[in-house]
Amino acid sequence: MIRFDSVSKRYPGGIAALAELTFAVESGEMIVLSGHSGAGKTTLLKLIPAIERPTQGSVIVNGQNVATLKRAAVPYLRRNIGMVFQDQKLLHDRSVFENVMLPLAIAGVAVRDAGRRVRAALDKVGLLEREKAMPVALSGGEQQRLAIARAVVARPSILIADEPTAHLDDDTARDIAAMFHAFNQVGVTVLVATHHEALFAPYMTRRITLAHGRVVS
Amino acid sequence: MKGWLLHHRQAALQAFRRLAATPLNTVLGALVLGIALALPAGGEMLLANFQRLAQRVAATPQISVFMALDAGRKEVAEVESRLRRHAQTREVSLVPREETLKRLKESEGLGEVIDSLPRNPFPDAFVVVPRTETPEALEAMRAEFAQYPKVEHVQLDSAWVRKLDALLRLARLVVTLLATVLGVALVAITFNTIRLQILTQRDEIEVSRLLGATDAFIRRPFFYFGALQGLAGGLVAWLAVLGATLLLRGPVGELAGLYGIDFSLHILPLADSLMLLGLSALLGLAGAWISLRRHLSS
């Protein structure tokens, strides 16, 4: 499903974020990416939906090489990847419902069907009662759950998350980890970059540890 | 196809929502665009009306033949007979000098002046309606009539229409130039509005891209916004021109009546109105397109 083959990423200015990275993720796996800050976890995740392109090597996602993918094809690749960002990237002038609706609007799903799917996604993350609320009115944990609902509403085959439990209390962080496990249980391939490995340890199928842009274990 | 239509519907609704979200800005923007567009649209309306007037007057060219003051009845009758027999004349009517004097006496403010004259200073005159309308033939008739005995002066009454026509052509050029300049202004205003929209929607654009939005999906609401803003400006311009036409119609008709002309201002015809609205929307679209190319290229 995802294959990194001798992938290197160097940012302008010569900063090497990843070096000769080779690994594969099979469909249905739940991978935890660990490593110190600056190890390259975020860069690795950004390569999967072509937010960044590799400087060298190939990144194959659902049979498509991200390194050579045409710009016009990128949106269609992303529609099959759910993303939970470190800073959540919620739209604060839109309601909870409208935030979750956005991926379906982008995908051109009919309004009635989309409404049903949005409510189902909100129900899964326990936010159905708050569909009319604005994100600013939600707690940190609720905002994270909203970001997860938005990531899964279009039923992606891959779900990637960058530090989804950062700044959350232990109980909420455990709930979030369990939520990722639940999505993995229904066949979604999950990659989570986190410093809280212990939270995800009961659910992960594998851990990939990075150090200075290289896989160390 | 269904998805494409759905995207357009969503984009149009989004553009409407953006316009409705800032009603004061929307109204002020439409007023600025409308006033800018009202100038060439109003000019076009006036031109169309004056052209109609010129065409109506020019459709019946007349030649005025003035006899010499010392021309006797017999000589006047002789000229009248020649004029009536002329192959190119349709109508000939004699305006006797006594009638001219009487008419002027009845004119407001001229009675006393006329009474103070020692004798009737007006000649007998003929008003000839020719069969032809070509300037060359009319000019030939004028020259021929001038050769008739005791004819003092022959005036081709369509000459002023030609002058008016030249003036109208010049005015049309001015209106076209004005429309071009103000059309560019409309594009520039829309360009800037869309630039500001892009800045305020930066987060939404970024998130949408991350969630798989194509460039077309992101640009579409801005295109609708530009077109709607242009259309709103066009509508304001149309209403302004309509209002001005209705306000001016009475006084202009009255003024024309004083000159013996049955004339009233017409509002912009349907085709011109639709063209104004369509062009406004297109110019708004063009402004949005340029702005998006400039500010949303990556």
| Main pleated sheet of chain B | 4 strands, antiparallel
* Beta content of chain A: 25-35%
Total domains of chain B: 2
Low-confidence stretches of chain A: none
Sequence stretches where pLDDT stays below 50 over 5 or more residues of chain B? none
How would you state the average pLDDT of chain A, rounded? 93
Class of secondary structure makeup of chain B: alpha+beta
Helix content of chain A: 25-40%
Note the run of SSEs of chain A as H and E: EEEHEEHEHHHEHEHEE
The gyration radius over C-alpha positions of chain A equals 17 Å
- Describe the strand arrangement of the main beta sheet of chain A, using strand numbers: 6-7-8-3-9-10
Number of strands of chain B: 4
Span between N and C termini of chain A? 20 Å
**Total helical segments of chain A:** 7
Shape of chain A: globular
Most extensive interface, residues per chain? A-B, 24 and 19 residues
Structural account:
The complex is a heterodimer of chains A (217) and B (298). Chain A is α/β, with parallel strands linked by helices and 217 residues long. Chain A has a domain at 93-154. In chain A, 33% of the residues lie in helices and 26% in strands. Chain A is built from 7 helices and 10 strands. Chain A has helices spanning 41-47, 74-78, 96-107, 111-124, 140-152, 170-185, 197-200; strands at residues 2-11, 15-25, 30-35, 56-61, 64-65, 81-84, 158-162, 189-193, 206-211, 214-215. In chain A, the strands form 2 sheets. A 6-stranded mixed sheet of chain A has the order 6-7-8-3-9-10, with helices on both faces. Chain A has a 4-stranded antiparallel sheet with strand order 2-1-4-5, covered by helices on one side. In chain A, a hairpin with a 2-residue loop joins β9 and β10 (214-215). In chain A, α3 (96-107) runs parallel beside α5 and α4 packs across α5 (140-152). The longest helix of chain A is centred in the last third of the chain and has 16 residues, at 170-185. Chain A is globular and about 45 Å long. Chain B has 298 residues and is an alpha+beta fold. Chain B is 73% helix and 8% strand. Chain B contains 10 helices and 4 strands, in the order ααβαβααβαβαααα. Chain B has a 4-stranded antiparallel sheet. The radius of gyration of chain B is 31 Å and the shape is elongated.
